[in-house]
Specification:
This protein is an alpha+beta fold and 274 residues long. It contains four helices and 16 strands. An eight-stranded mixed sheet has the order 2-3-4-1-5-8-7-6, with helices on one face. Strands 10-11-12-9-13-16-15-14 form an eight-stranded mixed sheet, with helices on one face. The longest helix has 12 residues.
């Protein structure tokens, strides 16, 4: 299991009202298999490799949503930086058995994310391949507060881009035009699309004021159109129909319990390789 660079996305999980229904949906959609974890929790595997987890909500007030976690080698220091940068710590660092230590926080715009300090579990065993995580981005109305927050907390270097790339889901559920996207590259790398691990998008006034800031995570798929159709067949919904972007073809979907996620089909090169 490979170690993750500091501040890299390293894990995703989803909180659902009905865990068994979630296993049926994602098992058929992505071909995942499951292994029971501690408590109401199921680890998801793609081709025998760990890719995500599903959890039964313990509190009905919790959102039905996918959550993203960023790697840290010092969770106490990361939590301190979050507070210093104007964020809010929702869950103080807590040990998850021998697997590691986790915490949850919100940025100044209210988007929630997690921190993970690895123990026996580093995080994903597979990513950027069909059936696994490939990208994440925060959608916010407060970019002038949020940009310096992530740069201070995670050391991200920002690259402002014209609307293109795997960030295109920032068009939102109604497909309104995207604006103001920034890609994040880890500290010590050359900023740009080749090194980016995530990004920030702007929620415009075209969306209802009650829409909160949020993270949208993507999963790689072999066929975007087919995956979107299968999601509907399984009881889910299409929030943004499949469309082409420079990084392939993508769609924004909801599962049959309302959790939102995106799928991305990588482009095929002239020689037929992705």
């Amino acid at each position: 299991m490979a170690a993750f660079a500091r501040s890299a996305p390293c894990w995703v999980d989803v909180q659902l009202p009905d865990l068994e229904a979630g296993k049926r949906f994602y098992g058929e959609l992505f071909g995942w298999t499951f292994r029971a974890g501690e408590g109401p929790y199921a680890d998801a595997f793609s081709g025998g490799e760990l890719v995500a987890a599903l959890a039964a909500k313990q509190d009905g007030r919790m959102p039905t949503a996918w959550g993203i976690y960023f790697a840290t080698d010092d969770i106490a220091a990361s939590v301190a930086r979050i507070r210093e940068a104007g964020g809010q710590v929702i869950t103080e660092p807590v040990r998850s058995g021998r697997a590691g230590v986790l915490a949850q926080a919100a940025d100044p715009g209210g988007a929630v994310f997690g921190l993970w300090q690895a123990g026996d579990r580093e995080g994903f065993q597979k990513q950027n391949e069909p059936g696994s995580f490939c990208w994440t981005e925060v959608h916010t109305r407060q970019k002038d507060r949020v940009d310096p927050f992530y740069e201070k907390v995670f050391g991200f270097q920002g690259t402002d881009l014209e609307p293109s790339g795997p960030d295109a889901a920032r068009t939102g559920p109604d497909g309104s035009p995207p604006i103001g996207f920034r890609m994040w590259s880890p500290a010590g790398t050359e900023p740009g699309p080749d090194t980016a691990v995530g990004g920030r998008s702007v929620i415009t006034d075209a969306f209802p004021a009650e829409l909160p800031s949020y993270f949208l995570s993507y999963f790689a798929v072999e066929d975007c159109n087919r995956t979107a159709g299968n999601a509907v067949r399984l009881g889910g919904r299409i929030s943004a129909p499949p469309f082409d972007i420079p990084y392939g073809r993508m769609a924004v979907l909801q599962d049959d319990q309302g959790a939102v996620f995106a799928v991305l089909q990588p482009p095929v090169s002239e020689n037929g390789a992705e």
